[in-house]
Amino acid sequence: MNFIKNMWYIAGESEDVSDSLTSRKLLDENIVLLRDAGGSIIALENRCPHRFAPLTLGRREQDGIRCGYHGAKFGFDGQCLEAPLQTPPKDCGVRSYTAIEKYGYVWVWIGDGDPDHEKIPSAFAVGGDKDWAGFSHYELEIPAYYELFNDNLFDITHAPYVHSDDFDPDFLTQFSGPPNQGTPEGPEDGVWVDIGSDRITYYVQAAGSEDPFFQNMLAAARGESEYRAAVHMQLQVRWMAPCYFSFQTKVTATTEEANEASIATTLMALIPNTERQTSFYFMSRRNFAIDDAHVTDMFRNFIMKTFIEDRAIVTAQSANMTSHDVNGDARPLMFVGDIVGQQGRRIVASLSD
Ligand code: FES
Ligand SMILES: [Fe+2]
User: Which residues approach ligand 1 with their CB closer than 6 A?
Assistant: First the structure.
């Protein structure tokens, strides 16, 4: 299993963490989250060192957590403060994690190295930008290995089949063949991919798309009920290893001389809980129809529907495999549409412990 340590992982939305005890699992590590009296996030190992009871079954006290099994008490720095029938043994405590709040999420540093704030994906900054429309964010639990969902998000060829209500098979005809290297210089049709040591950017664009999803988005941006002409569309996907995606969709009318692009961004995080359990966080932001709740609903409905469709196929795919490792004993058939996802797999493998 390819888990990358010394990395930030989302443990929840800011509002998920309160004064009471919340449990999370990140990369197979059990964590209890809460806020101290000043509102700062506390993240501790959720396992008592005595007989390994989860501390979330205990109770929060003013200055610590008391284990619900034999009553040992741990301060917010993890240090054991009280033990039953005795003073706490030397070096008794639970592990403390660095946790911060940024862009609406709680991020926990997993690994022994010093927390590196540069590693929080900068693409997520749009999530905290007040000039963009109010976002909606949700969480889905996926009973599958996170890289299977990475593969899904790197691949456009499933769109007309898994999301057949929203994408037509003709959608793919403009993009046949392997992707071009680098970044597009003009509005021509095609797919480009730009690969770094820990990130991938790829572009899918069409100078005259008649796909309903892009037409509906442009109609919403123009305040119209429908838009039937061809649109310029560009999807820019930025992925940061191991599990963070920004999908920026830009649509522009082809029929007018100068018109501003309407941009919608979906931010996604596929947080590995265990080898076969992933928490999927996402939020949607846009630069148009800022105050229009109907447009927010349209995006919420579309995004929820497509991700639930993705979850269904990825869950069924995972259950049909003996190993999560598509490059191992499963030996899959490879198509051109898998090229970008394979590069992502290579990067994750190169950065894993
Ligand atoms: S298991 Fe926590 S005090 Fe015994
Ligand atoms: Fe999908």
Answer: 48, 50-51, 53, 67, 69-72
User: Of all atoms in ligand 1, which is nearest to the CA of residue 52?
Assistant: 1
Q: What does DSSP assign to residue 182?
A: S
The number of beta carbons lying within 10 Å of the beta carbon of residue 275 is 16
Which of 67, 73, 81 has the most ligand 1 atoms within 8 A of CB, as the residue to mutate? 67
- 3-state class of 211 per DSSP? coil
Q: Which architecture characterizes domain 125-351 according to CATH?
A: Alpha-Beta Complex (3.90)
In this structure, the residue with its CA closest to atom 3 of ligand 1 is 70
Distances (CA, A) of 222 to 13, 89, 250, 272: 32, 68, 14, 39
Q: What is the pLDDT of residues 172-216, one digit of tens each?
A: 888 888 999 999 998 889 999 999 999 999 999 998 888 888 898
127-176 pLDDT per residue, tens: 766 667 766 677 789 999 999 999 999 999 999 999 998 888 887 888 88
What residues does each domain of the chain span?
Answer: 7-118, 125-351
Whether the pTM exceeds 0.85: the reply is: yes
Q: How many CA atoms lie within 13 A of 347 on its CB side?
A: 22
Neighbours of ion ligand 2 (CB under 5 A): 310
Q: What is the CATH number of domain 7-118?
A: 2.102.10.10
Closest ligand to Cα 306: 2
**Separation of CA 83 and ligand 1 centre (Å):** 9
**Ligand 1 closest atom vs CA 55:** 2
- Supply angle C-alpha 235, 269, 35, rounded to 5: 140
